[in-house]
Amino acid sequence: MVMSEHLSKAQVKWVRSLQQKKFRDAEGVFVAEGEKCVNDLRGAFELLLLATPDNASAVEIEQMSSLRNPQGVIAVFRKPIPNNQYPLSSLILALDGVQDPGNLGTIIRTCDWFGIHDILCSRDTADCFNPKVVQATMGALARVRLHYVDLPQTLAQLHQQGMPLYGTLLEGKNMYDNNAIPNRQQGVIIMGNEGNGISPQVRQLITHPLFIPSYPPNEPTSESLNVSIATAIVLAEFRR
Prior knowledge:
Elements: H1 9-17, H2 21-27, E1 29-33, H3 35-42, E2 47-51, H4 58-64, E3 74-78, E4 91-96, H5 101-113, E5 118-122, H6 131-137, E6 145-149, H7 151-160, E7 165-174, E8 187-192, H8 200-203, E9 208-211, H9 227-238
Parallel strand pairs: 4-5, 4-8, 5-6, 7-8, 7-9
Antiparallel strand pairs: 1-3, 2-3
């Protein structure tokens, strides 16, 4: 139930506790901050509590907030019921051990922009309901579903059902070459961990390895791209 009267000390303490995953999991809820983010999520998730300057003091909002500069609006939503159903006739993103909340939130927001509605996540990928992730999505969680699965097993099953598996690898084919991407409308695009890339168990399943070339070719450059930036570049090419 959304509380309209002044929040109690117990409610303030409860919201603050939800910064920890174990409490979010136990309660089946998550926290969002900022008027735009909260408004976007209200149409997709059940609203349980809303804190604004009308029912909470600035000190209380600061206590509940996970942000350095609280935005004045904090909401608690009920998590969706897990549903590992996703269309096989579309593009799906898979994340193999992406652990930085900021990266994950940016990736979710990028998927929303490029019309990717389902993301498969390995069990060690960051929690999409981490407050930092929710904040970085800017409301995109209302339109993008994340599925935490046994990633190698799930990818193997999808391949058996005819889905091509794309992955970014240094030894991959230049993704701008003709025929590097035979089907831009269907498949799984796999992105790996920030430091280690795609795991060996997942790497062996890739049917179409892709490489994002630097420019100009064969000149010294950064060792790698940030995974959220790399994801945006790959999705832009698929949607071109």
